[in-house]
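ASSEMBLY PREDICTION REQUEST
Request ID: AP-0331
Submitted by: J.K., bench scientist
Number of chains: two
Total residues: 549
Priority: normal
Notes: Please return the full assembly, not individual chains.
Input sequences:
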Amino acid sequence: MQGIDREWIVRKTLFVMAMMAVLGVLLIVFFVAREAMPAFTQAGPANLFSSAWDPAGGRYGMLIFITGTLTTTVGGLLLGAPLAIGSALFLTQMAPRRVRSFFTRVVELLAGVPSIVLGWLGFTVMVPWIREATGSPGTGILAASIILAIMVLPTITAISKDALEAVPRSYLDASLAMGATRWQTVRRVLIPSAKPGLLVAVILGMGRAIGETMAVALVIGPATAYPTSLTSPTHTLTTKILMEMGESTGVQRSALFAMGLVLLLLSMALIVLVRAVTRERREAA
Amino acid sequence: MTEVACGACGKFELEGVNLYYNGFKALEGIDLRIERCSITALIGPSGCGKSSALRCLNRMNDLIPGARVEGLVSLDGEDVYQRGYDVVELRKRVGMVFQKPNPFPKSVYENVAYGPRLFGIKDKETLDDIVESSLVSAALWDEVKGKLKSSALALSGGQQQRLCIARVLAVQPEVILLDEPCSALDPIATQRIEDLLVELKSRYTIVIVTHNMQQAARVSDYTAFFMIEQQGDPGRVIEYDTTNAIFTNPKDERTERYITGRFG
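STATUS: Completed
Returned structure:
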C-alpha cells in the first residue's frame, strides 16, 4: 500500500513539474500579448510596422529594429557558421584525439563566457579597431555581427560535430575505398549526409543570435536609424527594448512589448523550422 | 596451380606480410599469390585476420590509427606500400565491397555515378552509359531501371549489395575485394551474388572473405585457410591451394578439422 502511494506521489509531482514548463510558456505568451495589446488597438499595426519611431509624436514603428535584428543575425551567422562547421570538420575528421578533447573543452568554455564580458571586450577593444580601420564610429552591424559570430560558435560547433559524427563510418569507407581522397569524401559524402543536422545547428545558432541583447547593445551604436553601412550605428529589437523599457509608459511601453512579441514569434518560428528539418531527416532515413 | 591468361585483371602477391595494430600483431608471415581472373576465398574462424589481410590489399588498413604493415604486397609486380605509391590510384584499381551493404544515402543513379564523377566524368550521356552497363553487369538493371532516381536506401539488402558491386564496377577496377558480402543477406540474395561473382571472374580478379565454407567451395578457384593458434597470437595462413584440393584433400590436419566443421 505504501509503495503504491509513493509511486502515486512521485508521478503526480513529476507531472506538476512538467506542467510548469508548459504553463511558463503559455503565461509568457499570454502576458506579452496582453501587454502588447494596447499598442495594436491604440496605435494600430500600420503604425507599429512602419519605419518611424517617435513616441513623443505618437509614432511607434519598429521596422528599423526588425531590420537591425535580421541583419545582425544574418551577419553573425555568415561569419560564425562557416567557422563553426569548419571547426567541427577539423575536430571530427582531422584532429588527433588529444587535440580534439582539448579543443572541445575550449569551445565549451567559450559557451560559458557571459555575454556582458564579450560585449564589453567588443566595445573597448574591437570597436576602436574597426573605428581606426574604417574611419567610422566603429559601432554598428559589423561589430554586432562579429560579436554574435563568436557567441554562436560554440552552439553551432557542438551540434555540427554531433551531426558529422552521426554519419555512418561505412559511408566514408565506401567512398575512400573507391579511390576518393579525404577531401572529396568530406565534400561529396560526409557533408551531404550530415546536411539536415548541420542545418539544425545553424538554426539553433540563429536562435541564440536573434535574442542576444547585452553584447549587441554595447556595440550596435545605438541610433534609431536604418544602417547606411556596415559600420553605422543602428538598433535591434532587443537593444531598443533594453534602452527604453526603464522610462516608457502607456502606448510606448506597449509598443516595446509588441516588439518583444515579434521577437518571440521569430524564435518560435525557428523552433518549428528545426522540427520540420529533423522530421524530414527521420523520414529520409 | 595453373594461371589463366587474361589481359586487364590484376595479380596480387604477398610475401612475408606482417600486420600490426599498435603493439598487437594481427597477421604474421602471410604468403599468398592471388591469381588473375579467378576467385580466391579467404576462410577461417572469426578473428583470424582474414578481413585484415583483405584490407592490406587496398590499403584500407591505413585508415586505422596505429596500423602498420611489414613485408611485400605487390600488384602486378609493383610494391603498393612503397614510398610515394598513389593510394588513390590503387583503390581505383582495387574496388571493395563491404560486409554490410553501404550505399550512399543518394539515388540509385548517383550511387553508381559516384566513382565516375569523382574521376572527372561530367558528360550526361557517358554517365548514363556507365550507370546502365554497371547495373547490367551487377545483375541489377532489370530491377531498378524504372527507379534510378529513387533512394538507394529503399532497395532490399540484396539489391543494395549488388548496387555496391555496381558502384565498384563503374570505375572499371582490375580487382574486386569482397568482405563477407553475403553475411547480412538471405539465401536467395546470397545465391544471386554468388552467381554474379562467377560471371564476373572472367573480367576481374576477385578476392572474397567468407565465413561460409559452402560459399567458398561453390564460388572460388583458390582458397586460403587462416587461423590463430590461440587468443592473442597473430593470424597465419595454414594452407593455400586450389579450392578443390583444400576441400577434398587438405594437407594440414587443422584445415581438415575446420572444413569438416569440427571447430570454428
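REVIEWER COMMENTS: The two ends of chain B are 27 Å apart (CA to CA).
SIGN-OFF: pending second reviewer
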